[in-house]
Amino acid sequence: MLDALTHIGTLHYLLVAAILFLIGMIGVITRRNVMIIFMCIELMLSAVNLNLLAFSRLWGLHGQVFALFIAADAAAEAAVGLGILIAFFRNRTTVNVDEVDLLKW
Amino acid sequence: MALAAMFMMVPSPFGAVDYRAGAPMILLTLFALGILCVDLFLPASRKQYSAAPALLGLFAAGLATHEIQRVLPANGDALRGFFGIILVDPLAVYFFYLFLVGAALSILISVKYLEIERENHGEFYALLLACVVGMMCMAAGNDLVMLFIGLELMALSSYILVGFLRGNKRSNEAALKYLLLGAFSSAILAYGLSLFYGVSGTTNLAVLCDALTQRMEANPHDPIVLLAMLGVLAGMLFKIAAVPFHMWAPDVYEGAPTSVTGFMSVSVKAAGWAMMLRVLLFGLAPLRALYVPTLVFVALATLLVGNLAAITQHNLKRLLAYSSISHVGYMLLGLVASDGVTSRTGIKGILFYLLAYTFMNLGAFTVLTSLRRRNIAGDDIEDIAGLMQKAPMEAICMLIFLLSLAGIPPFAGFYGKYFIFLSLIETGHYALATVAVLFSVVGLYYYLRIANAMFVRTPATSEPVTVAAGVNLALIFSAAATIVIGLLPNIFIRAVDWSVSVLGPSVAQLR
């Protein structure tokens, strides 16, 4: 039991990643500010990266390369996201998702 | 200098086969970057000229694809490139052609539309080509990393295309919704992919398939595999807008520029399907017993929601969005019926459906694009009322597209539904086949509601409908294709047969 607590193994990383992913997911669902939703999505992608890095301890370099690609993708997504958010803010002066309500049914 | 010399000394690991297999993507990328450069030198009033190099790029990529198709039989029906991360086989070639035609028709209808919206920029065409590159990576990806990056390239380009009308509140809102939900679903997909890497130690689809076979023999209800599969399924079902991951589709289709909506409803959806087929039939084949029950539920929910919600719509773009959701329901049933090994009819049905759908749905959106005039949004059912009096040719083409969408012979849409229903009956899914047929009757109601508005009612405004040359060309081409595919299906059935020939016993051979 003590050994499981003191020795940090792959499983611990995976648990942290799973918790991080869940926090991000709950954040996306419950938060109302678009900026915070973006941050939660980044959190989810970080969890994916942590997962890949932890697994690459077992399997070798492939996971680390995948993680690099996901990091680049997250950056591109943030850039596009902020661009769209600025265009939205200019027309509507809000970043609250409850006010994103022109299109429905 | 020293660094450059060092790079010169390292021999390139890639040879002619790599570049031949990747030629369509490489060409399109070069053209997209070229358009961005040329666009800098065009005066503001001449930005629409960028459409010409874009069309030229699509044509060049088409020639490169044709070249691949020509050499395929000599290479055992598969060209592999870049350490096996892309696998160009008949299935990929089929999807390449589909994407190229969809993109070309979308460019034709975009030129005039963007001019009316006063958002004529060369970037539009560069983004459209980048989107097609992403789709090709999804269709030819043989590696989880490649598939994911292709998906994201397509998704990021399409987020920008949806929000292209910067001053338009509805376009802004559609882009924001699409981006938030799309990024959320990609994160879930990525988590699923990371777990698949974890259980198998590989990102190659064929090796993943072997590893999963062993793992499923050891424990058929492995919770990690189940979690990974659900994550990957959710991400892919989002892209094809299947219930319960469809909420974005009506909003995004309504808010996006009409020509982009047309492009998204056919090509982006086809790319989602290409990735679905790649992942589910090649990589996750050992998990078939686990994912089929999920797909049955999703397919029935998609048919129900898509068809019933479409009945009450007044906005034509929204109506076609719900109708496109219901079409996904039929295609999912094809995947339920056929696994590609013992039965191929369903997969054949999906491919034929996507071919017919590209022409008939893009054709319907072409008509909607021409309804957009200076002061008229042109996406309400009132705007199409009395179209027969104003523009008879458009009205008749629209009728052809609507009948084809409803699945009435002798138009193309009939054969898509025919093969799907046939596959369900061949594999003994009689209840599912009955439900699907009943839902296609519901579909007839809302398609004919549009036809009723066009032919029976009188026009709401006296503003004339003028059709630009590019729109006219796209319209005639789509209508002709819808009729020709319907009247001479044999040629196209042979093409589909050829592209599904990679499935079944040869999947094992490909490893």
Fold and architecture overview:
The complex is a heterodimer of chains A (105) and B (511). Chain A is built from four helices and no strands. The mean pLDDT of chain A is 90. In chain A, 79% of the residues lie in helices and 0% in strands. Chain A has helices at residues 2-6, 10-30, 34-59, 62-92. The radius of gyration of chain A is 18 Å and the shape is elongated. Chain A is mostly helical. With 511 residues, chain B is mostly helical. Chain B has one domain (21-503). Helices cover 76% and strands 1% of the residues of chain B. Chain B has helices at 2-9, 16-41, 51-71, 90-117, 123-140, 144-162, 169-200, 205-218, 223-239, 248-255, 258-283, 288-311, 316-337, 345-371, 381-384, 387-390, 392-406, 412-426, 430-455, 469-487, 489-500, 505-509, and strands at 79-81, 86-88. The longest helix of chain B is centred in the middle third of the chain and has 32 residues, at 169-200. Chain B is globular. The mean pLDDT of chain B is 91. Classes of the chains: A mainly alpha (105), B mainly alpha (511). The interface between A and B is large, with 44 and 41 residues.
Identify low-pLDDT runs of chain B: none
| Count of discrete domains of chain A | 1
User: Residue share in helices of chain B?
Assistant: over 70%
Instruction: Determine the fraction of residues in helical runs of chain A and give it as a percent range.
Output: over 70%
Helix and strand run of chain B: HHHEEHHHHHHHHHHHHHHHHHHH
* Quaternary structure: heterodimer
Strand tally of chain B? 2
| DSSP helical segment count of chain B | 22
Give me the number of helical elements of chain A. 4
Distance between the termini of chain A: 55 Å
CATH structural architecture of chain A:
Orthogonal Bundle
Shape of chain A, please?
Answer: elongated
Order of helices and strands of chain A: HHHH
CATH topology group of chain A: Helix Hairpins
Indicate the radius of gyration of chain A in whole angstroms.
18 Å
